[in-house]
Specification:
Strand content: 5-15%
Strand order of the largest sheet: 3-2-1-4-5-6-7-8
Order of helices and strands: EHEEHEHEHEHEHEHHHHH
Distance between the termini: 55 Å
Radius of gyration: 24 Å
Number of strands: 8
Structural class: alpha/beta
Length: about 290
């Protein structure tokens, strides 16, 4: 089997290095607009082809690792060179909608298709970065990638699911980071950053992540209205001193929406104890209010 990379940035180089180091594959090639054709393998054992067509002709399996915004255009530009002998695996971080379009483009050529999302830092884990995978030919792609030593979670045949998981995780990690920066900027302004961080550490370190989510969500659906008011007060404090409060205002609005569901007065099957219980109430009350 020959593996080709379309896009050969840091992530693709890390995957190639991991595969080379593990010794699961010796024939790899790459093409991107930023590299020059070379038949001499680089430090990762990868040769550089001179065109997209040459890369496709060389490869049995193609890993597409371009920026997510280029996923559709890459599929369109690659499609004329594909046929039923090729496996096209899109590892960009695009939207589920985009992945459905990409699958349609690729499947029309007769090529097999899967799309995936790498769920952690690729240079740290190399090819063993945990990767979710989905799409029409996900089972075949899973076998191929597992044979290379990759760590795969099969999400089924619906395209875009893998990227949905990554983007939804990003809603927490990136929005949480934005909240942290907003909080720290304000905490430093008031000269209490160390006190705030120490207090949060004592609270957060007492529970595992899931235990913390259970506690916050279970209590949050009952007391969302009160917590929205508290967050609005924090935002007002910041704004009065000319500090940004974008995340605080958005958070208060979301909590008001949850509070408006009036879950605390409609605990039809007892107080929630887990995040799953909390979300069951949210779904139930939204359905009742339609």
């Amino acid at each position: 089997m020959r593996l080709g990379f379309i896009g050969y940035g840091d992530a693709a180089r890390a995957v190639a290095k991991g595969i080379k180091d593990e010794g699961t594959l010796s024939e790899m090639a790459a093409w991107s607009r930023s590299i020059v054709k070379s038949d001499v393998p680089d430090e990762n054992g990868v040769i550089y082809t001179g065109s997209r067509k040459e890369l496709v002709d060389y490869s049995d399996v193609i890993f597409v690792m371009v920026p997510g915004a280029a996923a559709i255009s890459c599929a369109e530009e690659t499609a004329p060179y594909l046929d039923e002998s090729k496996m096209y695996v899109d590892l960009c971080t695009g939207s589920p909608h985009d992945m459905k379009i990409v699958e349609e483009i690729i499947v029309k050529t007769g090529a097999r298709f899967a799309d995936g999302a790498m769920m952690d830092t690729v240079p740290k884990y190399l090819h063993k970065v945990p990767t979710t995978l989905c799409g029409k030919d996900v089972d075949e792609a899973e076998k191929i990638m597992t044979s290379l030593g990759m760590i795969i979670t099969n999400m089924g045949t619906e395209p875009g699911k893998a990227d949905a998981v990554k983007l939804l995780r990003s809603m927490y990690t990136k929005a949480h980071l934005a909240c942290v920066f907003e909080m720290l900027e304000a905490a430093e302004h008031y000269g209490v950053a160390e006190f705030v961080m120490d207090g949060l550490a004592k609270t957060m370190d007492n529970k595992t992540f899931v235990e913390g989510m259970d506690s916050r969500c279970a209590g949050g659906v009952i007391h969302a209205g009160r917590r929205a008011h508290e967050l609005d007060s924090a935002a007002e404090m910041l704004e009065e001193d000319g500090l940004p409060a974008y995340v605080s205002r958005a958070g208060a609005q979301k909590l008001r929406e949850i509070g408006a569901l009036d879950i605390k007065n409609n605990l039809t099957h007892g107080k929630p104890k887990t995040w799953q219980d909390a979300m069951e109430y949210v779904r139930e009350r939204k359905g009742a209010q339609k």
